[in-house]
Amino acid sequence: MKKLIFTLAASVLALGASAQYYQDAANPDILHIEQPRTQQRAVFNVPQINGYNVYKADLHTHTIFSDGHTTIDYRIREAWMDGLDIYAVTEHAEYRPHESTFIKWLKGYVRPEVERAKNHRLVNATAEKGADKDGIQVDLNLPYVKAQEVAKQFGITVIPGIEITRTPATIGHYNALFIKDANSIFDNDPEQSIRNARAQGALIMHNHPGWSRTSLQMTEFEKNVYSKGLIDGIEIMNGVEFYPKAIERAKKYDLFMSSNTDVHRTTYEVYAMNGHHRNMTLILAKDKSLESLREALEAKRTLAYSFGTVAGDEKLLQDLFNASVKVVYSAVEKPGRIYLQFENRSSIDFLLRLGEGGELIRLDGGKSVSVRHKDSYGKNLIVENMWSEKGNTVTIDLTPHLEAAMAAK
Ligand SMILES: [Zn+2]
Ligand SMILES: [Zn+2]
Question: Quick check: 285 and 52 in contact, CB under 8 A?
């Protein structure tokens, strides 16, 4: 049947654009309203640093497989829309409150006179908790399998992991990343759980070290596992929490630093709705294979991004800035004063101060600013939205930038 197509003016629709209406092929009383596809990804650019690609990762996430509120399919789509390259599956090993709800629902759904089918897919599960009284046990590897199915479509690398989840005040939470079998991690002894994960070749990240605590002081358990070399990384940022003291700890114990969402609801509610990009761990790696990402974490080539603040190793932060911002010469105003332009080729917004006590400049991602630079400012540029082991702000030596700008003028 021939389709009838007509367009109405925007004014009639009170919309910004006109819409197309297609009459249904089988039922002429149905109109299909065609809209352009708006599934556009928020691209977040970070240029290569020291010859490495910079991948955007979330190393800490939750779905209905533990205590999150979305499916894992949704999480992967959300990660792609948010511009991520890497997604780690890190459901709680010990805390999965939705499970009993599902089991009760399934029990209620099946009529008593109907013989129930065994869930053959779940027979190999060995997790301590989550087992139903009927002997139904979950396969904790399923979230990783499901995530991979969706991630393929978007080219996202999925890191298999799990969150070892114990009393926050004394033991804490630890993400085991690059695990082989989520079902054989649990042990009543939390140190043994960490050892079980490490025996599979996992890297252990200490999560939200200040959460539900009165300080960042290390507990006896932490001192023990840190001193035994069982910890590889630490979250210096988790959701809206930032732990500057964890940067010093990362340097002391030689740990990779990360910033993750630990998302339970949607990133739209927590970040995008308020105009923010989600938390990210920037990983400097050769490529985004599991081998290369692991190598990058072991080499501590990571930076943490949260709500516009970038944190991590001082040298790496300087390298990030130098790779992102190009200084271009404009003109001499008079002796001792020149006009320059700072071009930001990354998507990271920078807050800059021209020398100690100098003017404060906002240089947003993808933008340029024209700057009047006086000799009296000196050759240092202060980045105010960066944190390193030396504290708030990171100093950039402008000398090479100015030399390059003058050479190219
Ligand atoms: Zn946690
Ligand atoms: Zn968590």
Answer: yes
Find the 207 Cα to ligand 1 centroid distance in Å.
6
Distance 195 CA to ligand 1 centre (A): 18
pTM: 0.89
Tokens of 367: 């933008």
> What ligand has the least distance to the C-alpha of 263?
2
As a whole number of angstroms, the distance between CA 96 and CA 162 comes to 12
Q: List, for residues 226-265, the tens digit of each pLDDT value.
A: 999 999 999 999 999 999 999 999 999 999 999 999 999 9
pLDDT (tens digit per residue) in 264-284: 999 999 999 999 999 999 999
Nearest one of 173, 183, 89, 207 to 129, comparing CA atoms: 183
Domains and CATH numbers, the chain: 5-34 (no CATH), 53-312 (3.20.20.140), 322-407 (2.60.40)
Residue given tokens 């069982």 in the structure block: 230
Cα 271 from Cα 240, distance rounded (Å):
10
Q: How far is the CA of 113 from the centre of ligand 1 (A)?
A: 42
Ligand 1 is an ion; its neighbours by CB within 5 Å are 173, 207
Please tell me the distance from the alpha carbon of residue 70 to that of residue 100, in angstroms, as a whole number: 16
DSSP code at position 42? -
Q: Are 376 and 369 in contact (CB under 8 A)?
A: no
SS3 state of residue 364: coil
